[in-house]
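User: My instructor asked us to take a sequence, write out its structure as tokens, and then describe one feature of it. I'm not sure where to start. Here is the sequence I was given:
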Amino acid sequence: MTLACGHSADTLAGMRPIDIVAEECREEFKVATARVRQGERVDLLESVLVSGTGRRLHVRGSATPVIEEGGVAGARIIFRDVTREREAQRLKDELIALVSHELRTPVGAIRGALKTLVPHVAHLEGKPRKLFDMAARNADALLGLVNDLLDIERTESGQASLQRVAVPASGLLQQAHDALSPYVESMEIELRVEDATGSVMADPARVQQVLVNLLGNAVKFSPAGSTITLEAVNVPASLGPAMMRFGVADQGRGIPADKLDRIFERFEQVHTTDATEKGGAGLGLAVSKAIVEQHGGRIWAESVIGEGSRVYFTLPCVEAGA
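Assistant: Let's start with the prediction itself. The structure tokens for your sequence are:
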């Protein structure tokens, strides 16, 4: 029988674990095995194994001491092959680097050049003006897409640090209202802010980003004459820290039950035509999810088709006496 690592069971029986570890990983492996000999379990052990055919396997696992008669008689080492995961991560890193350095800069330059031309094309009419406006909108959209991709990556990788302060929930709601009210009014929609008490420990700028994303989505899918409601309420703490629940409720078309979780994934749209008809690339909710989870909260949606949707997220409350 040949095992996944390319060695037969008979061959492995005469080898030490370190014999199939790549040369550059052996010192770290020796340190881990020394800890196991002292009776300590080692988790998140990463190494590179060399298969019987010479193939290198990136693995991740744990080593648990086997205790017999009060002493360490051996170790149980369990590895999982993560070679494909590592390769996928490498490709993703290369893509992010490409987007960041090779795409963002020229798109930003195009967008800037178009904005400087605005005073000089004011006289244009008809098709030339429509083409210019289309180029400007598409440049804005593409730069927004690039920035959202980078924002998600920085947040999920922990590179986007949070500047946490105690901030009143009512202030966060009012700022979001003020930022979006001109847009909301232009769509003939009422934006209502409920009274809120208490404060959260959060990065105000990042929370504003979440609220504006959620409000923008609510406006896009709300009919004229409807109402969007912003709220923040304290959630009783049964287990864990006290949390405050923020909510954005609309009276739009609603979200199908099978989409309630998927809408927070990258590039996910409720309907396939939404990107064309409503705009956006389906990244706003993914960005919001990453920000909320970085704060230690969670985000979810509830909906009734034909009646509207509510998107909620939680943030930790300021501790008493803080």
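For the description part of your assignment, you could build on this observation: Residues 259 and 270 are 7 Å apart (CA to CA). Try explaining in your own words what that tells you about the chain.
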